[in-house]
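Morning F.,

Quick status update on the modeling queue. The single chain you submitted on Monday has been processed. Sequence for confirmation:
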Amino acid sequence: MSHLVIHRQTDTIEEETNFCEVYGSGFSDNSMLEKHLRTHAGRKNHSCEFCGSSFIYKSYLKRHIRTHTGEKPYSCEFCGLAFADHSTLRRHKRTHTGGKPYNCEVCGLSFSQNTNYKRHMQIHTGEKIFPCEICSSAFRTKFHLNEHICRHTGYKPFSCEVCDSSFTEKSVLKVHIRTHTGEKPYSCEVCGSLFTRKSNLKVHMRSHTGEKPYSCDMCCSSFTNKPNLQAHMLTHTGGKPCCKICGSSFTKESILRIHMRTHTGEKPFSCEVCGLFFTTKSTLKLHMRIHTGEKPYFCEVCGSSFAQKSTFQVHMRIHTGEKPYSCDFCGSAFSNHSNLRGHIQTHTGEKPHSCEVCCSSFTKKSNLERHMRTHTGDKPYSCEVCSASFATTSTLKLHMRTHTGEKPYSCEVCGSSFINKSNLQVHMRTHS
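Structure tokens below.
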């Protein structure tokens, strides 16, 4: 029972003969007056034998002692959780009963705790009682002030246990952790896309609603997000963020920051499986597919799957026959740039990769590595069905078709199918 309630009860029971000279409050007996006067005098006669802290009232000391002893005498009748003081139990029970005794007279919202109610009221009053001593900013809570001060000092108290990255705000760390766990708690109700941040979901929803809240002041263009508007504004101003080291210019500051890592060697993104480091988050994401086996790009023609979009695009040229890379020497065309580069070396005679065992030379490092297995006998690629081993992935892939029955190469004349391209070429001679 609070001291105010006790005081009011004495008002109805006995005549008040003892008065406080500060507020004029009356008390029925002298001991009650003495206890009240301590609140003005600041006398703290009750000391903790564990830590030396002092308190005005013995009841306050008794409650404090429980922080040392761990005693929790108040239990919840609903779930059995125990608490050190009755007021905390009373607040906890509202999670079961749904009780929200603190009502906002402005907007009608209700709250289970007085602290949450007071914090909410600052939204209406605009009161920000915690000012920053470094700049003119002010905040509604001390917690948000402390987070803000970290931006001035550079102090990052919230560290990631996986990759040792540090952050000024706990909420930013929470979002960062999702890059390791893969958690995406925000889902789009329209198409089912998942997102790590609520703000990303909000921007995504505009692709369905057509909302474009960011407008250009110089023309009629509008955009779904602020970065796109900023990039657009450069088309009017002609300004582009430039690298001070090599002079390269970029449409966005974020792209310039990534570019700078090519000069500094910084690789802030690390793989938690094998420890390799990467300059960009997207590169790390691609790398992780080596460990997870994820292959999100699926060929509808032959059923092959790929971990990278670029590899998938090169593969599709097998079916379309597209060869966008041409040799300046002989006009030969190729489906990807690496094959063109290797072909050009047949004109120049360059073979920069040499075998230390037999002195054979190769145009590609991968060809040298494959050749070395003829000396070592290494066959690192195993069949999961029959345990046969192979020196190259291409040989293993061909072998797997003997189990799956896959025959991706078809004759356009008679429709016969074959496991590999060479068998198809031999077959085609029967028609010619």
